[in-house]
Amino acid sequence: MSARWKASRARRWLQGCAHVGESPVITGRPSVHGEEGQLRIGDRFRLASIPVPSHLVAGPGAILDIGDDVAIGCGAAISAHERVQIGSGTRIGPYVIIMDSNFHGSPGDQSLHHDCRPVRIGAGCRIGSRVTITRGATIGDGAEILAGSVVSTAIPPGVCAAGASARIIGKAGDLQARWESPAAALPAMLMASLGLESPPNLDATVIPDHLRSGGGMEELGQSLKDQFGIAPDPAAIREARTFADIAAVIREVRPRSI
Amino acid sequence: MTLRDRAMKWIARLRSAPVWLRSSLGARLWLRGCDSVGPGTRTFWRPHIENRGRMQIGARVRLNSNWAVIELVSGPGGTLDIGDGVFINYGTMVSARRSVRIGPNVMIGNYCIVADTETPGTGDLADAPSSEPRPVEIGEGAWLAARVIVLPGTRIGAGAVIAAGSVVAGDIPAGSVAGGIPARVLRSR
């Protein structure tokens, strides 16, 4: 099968799109509906629809924007009623659901435009199998979402998140990232809550004063609660002078884990 | 055993003969893309097989693709090894870019996903380190209930039971019952 024939076959499935970049590859028979809104697809787009068909829908006046080099697995359902943006180089696994609307409003109200909030997925992300991304979710560049997660909030760039609902469990690309080990998750969490440039070393590094006074410590207490389900003494967290202190506080609450 | 019981048994066998014949011949036909298929293996309806590496299927394996299709994929250089007596129910996806080994007598429920990469079925591998496949191993006699997702790098011990809807990461000890997202050991069997 020549590449040209393949591309023309792919374009047949993508004919409802406002723009399709060069050499798209489509397997199977997806259902793509962008006639009412705007469906823009970048270069080298890959969409699998074997054995389960995928579908992409841009509703009336909605924008579904897919960057370059995006690959999407089979059985994916992506629906935009306001705006869904997928960055370049992102890979999306099979059976993923991405939607920016809840498909209902108050009880009895079935209008599709109720309370949409745009979804933004950054560049170079990896979204695992059967992930559900609901309205208002933003996923930072290069983040990694493990299989089976449900994302409805903001995931910072460069982290690995998992679970329902998804929480940060480590750095993206960190092969040791495990849900069971807060030791692996803590540096990335400190990075996100305190606004650090890179994950800190957990040994006795002193926390700079401007981070301690900037409200990051309260946020850190909240993320500890959200992510590990533990509620360490807020005073102990506020008084922590070093990253090692924070690790010690967590060790006290959850002795087995760090 | 009375004569009546014996007669009933033979009638039941005769009645299921067309199904048996069809599923046995179906396995020969639909699994012809595999490198080796053991005797007595049967497929119910047509599974989706994509073999670009190595795919070995043992004896007396049953693959049920009724209602939803089973997808077995092996990427270039990947090995998918299914042991004897395995049963895989409908809608399950097994993808091996490097190595997925399913031990003998494993039962896999419907709509499970077993893959050694994070985003199976999205074409060739990116060169980012985390997308590198990590081998998956499921031990002898393990049972995965419905809608279980097995993440890359997971090892499930022999005889372990994974509860429905779980996401499994890391190692699950043999003979345990695990469940949840992520799956934790709930008790031992």
Total discrete domains of chain B: 1
Number of beta strands of chain B: 21
Overall average pLDDT of chain B: 91
Q: What is the makeup of the main sheet of chain B?
A: 8 strands, mixed
Which CATH architecture of the largest domain in chain A is right?
A: 3 Solenoid
- Taking the alpha carbons of the first and last residues of chain B, their distance comes to 35 Å
| Radius of gyration of chain B, CA atoms, in whole angstroms | 18 Å
Q: What is the structural class of chain A?
A: alpha/beta
Ranges of chain B where pLDDT stays below 50 over 5 or more residues in a row are none
Q: Output the CATH homologous superfamily of chain B.
A: Hexapeptide repeat proteins
CATH class (first level) name of chain B? Mainly Beta
Succession of helices and strands of chain A: HEEEEEEEEEEEEEEEEEEEEEHHHHH
Task: Let me know the CATH homologous superfamily of the largest domain in chain A.
Answer: Hexapeptide repeat proteins
Distance between the termini of chain A: 55 Å
Which overall shape of chain B is indicated by the principal axes computed on the Cα atoms? globular
CATH topology of the largest domain in chain A: UDP N-Acetylglucosamine Acyltransferase, domain 1
Shape of chain A: elongated
The proportion of strand residues of chain A reads: 15-25%
Written as H for each helix and E for each strand, in order along the chain, the element string of chain B is: HEEEEEEEEEEEEEEEEEEEEE
Number of helices of chain A: 6
By DSSP, the count of extended strands of chain A is 21
